[in-house]
């Protein structure tokens, strides 16, 4: 094999599969108006809410995690990190980068209480 043969073969990676269900590959769904509406409705019904902006990953786009005072939470896709921080600022909600600060302890405690309640019946 010559040194230039590597470049003649073309790219080593293939295009994403057309049939994601058949191959098990994932396709990231973009945020839409339903996501924004859900965030606004959820925010209006709770108090003491903080926003945690989660960066894009291999399987998920940028998400906004809203956590209420009691630990109840919701997560939805958003168009961008900048959009998420602007959304929080417009609704007078403090926002943080989740990759830097993590998620609050009250959210983990809420999840633990919820799981225990589900086990009991």
Proportion of residues in helical segments: 40-55%
Nearest-integer average pLDDT: 85
Structural class: alpha+beta
How do the helices and strands follow one another from N- to C-terminus? HHHEEEHEHH
The main β sheet shows up as: 4 strands, mixed
Identify the overall geometry.
extended
Provide a quick synopsis of the model.
The chain has 121 residues and is an alpha+beta fold. It contains six helices and four strands, in the order αααβββαβαα. 41% of the residues lie in helices and 15% in strands.
Explain this structure.
By secondary structure, this protein is an alpha+beta fold. The protein is 41% helix and 15% strand. A four-stranded mixed sheet has the order 3-2-1-4. A hairpin with an 8-residue loop joins strand 1 (50-54) and strand 2 (63-67). It is extended. The model is unreliable at 13-17 and 19-25 (pLDDT under 50).
Quickly list its features.
121 residues, alpha+beta, four-stranded mixed β-sheet, 4 strands, extended
How are the elements arranged and paired?
Elements: H1 5-8, H2 20-23, H3 33-44, E1 50-54, E2 63-67, E3 73-77, H4 81-90, E4 95-97, H5 98-101, H6 105-120
Parallel strand pairs: 1-4
Antiparallel strand pairs: 1-2, 2-3
């Amino acid at each position: 094999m010559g040194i230039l043969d590597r470049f003649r073969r073309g790219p080593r990676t293939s295009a994403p599969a057309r049939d994601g269900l058949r191959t098990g590959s994932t396709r990231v769904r973009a945020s839409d108006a339903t996501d924004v509406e859900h965030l606004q409705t959820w925010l209006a019904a709770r108090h003491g809410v903080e926003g945690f902006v989660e960066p894009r990953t291999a399987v998920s786009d940028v998400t906004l995690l809203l956590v209420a005072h009691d630990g109840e939470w919701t997560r939805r896709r958003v168009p961008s990190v900048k959009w998420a921080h602007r959304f929080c600022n417009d609704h007078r909600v403090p926002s943080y980068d989740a990759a830097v600060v993590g998620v609050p302890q009250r959210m983990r405690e809420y999840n633990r209480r919820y799981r225990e309640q589900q086990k009991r019946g």
